[in-house]
Fold this protein.
Amino acid sequence: MPFRNLGAAAPDAPSALMIRCRADLRSRKLDLGVSVYRDTLGQTPIFAAVKRAEAELLSSRSSKTYLGSEGDQEFVALLAAEAFSMDRPIAGLQTIGGTGGLRLAGDLLARTAPGRRLWLGAPTWANHLPIFSACGLQVASCANHKLLDALQAAAPGDAVLIQACCHNPTGLDGTAAYWDALVDVVLARGLVVLVDFAYQGLGNGWREDCMALLHLLERVPNLLIAYSCDKNFGLYRERVGALFVVCPKPAEVHSLLGHLIALARVNYSMPPDHGAAVVRCILESPALKQVWRFELEAMRTRIRRLRAALAAYGRVGAVDLSQLDRGTGMFALLPIGPAAIDRLRSEFGVYLGPEGRINIAGLAEDTVHLFVDALDQVQERLAG
């Protein structure tokens, strides 16, 4: 057996949780683990704007030929203009979701400076560490509230990862003062910033969710921005994203984009067309864009209502739900241990992510009380 030395692969916890939830036949189960938006019926709907765009594409497309490793460049340009219009030299390529953009960014960082460290705060999205470790980067992790202090030990050319909005898993974003302080450290230490921008429009609003990135774009010379359209266009299974390069000079941007295209070529050759074409079709049509933005805003306000409904319960056992109203986006991190997480799942059919992460958008207005009651009962039983 030529592969006997590999041993067993470590299981992916989120995927395993999703499989267990699907196999659970209880009618009142609550899936708060998988990272997708759900409506009041528990479905992940297809946007009306997406369906209309797909219908237009079906009638107008005349070819299924290759895109090229850089993907749909019109999609990339329209997305950049819509998401964070700016006057600095910028270029980008289409990627396989935001995850594909992060992987290409990690590969680029490792290629341009072997031994470079990537700094990030914890807790963070579960896939960040595996992605960047697989790129060959040295990952330096510390508690989120200690990141600014930890960066004082960063070497020039090191990179720091930030989430632009709707932090996964905590739901707690930095203030304007925090981002100003981060920029000061980045400039003083000569760092590259990698921005994970996955939830624009689901937090405080479309432009408001860009606050952190705009702080960076105003002052930081070198940025990489991995953008996901999976959430704010509801295109999860289409895997739609882009990676943008921002540098002081157009020649530097062009050079780095060439390296990224080469990395994409040997990684996955070229991205799929359909999802990016849908986004492009929406963004180039004022009518479709208006419909999409209305739908996105409805999602955002529903998430805000759910946060407020949870927060209204105040303290439930040892868990203070009132703090959820201060967060943004789909996720929050509850201070409960593995025993409580296991009993919520086994006794009540409530599925949470690792370390107590909940997807608030997995709730409905009429199931909030079920979750709170289960949380209360589990804590009472463990305390007794």
Summary: The chain has two domains: 4-45+299-383, 66-284. The mean pLDDT is 93.
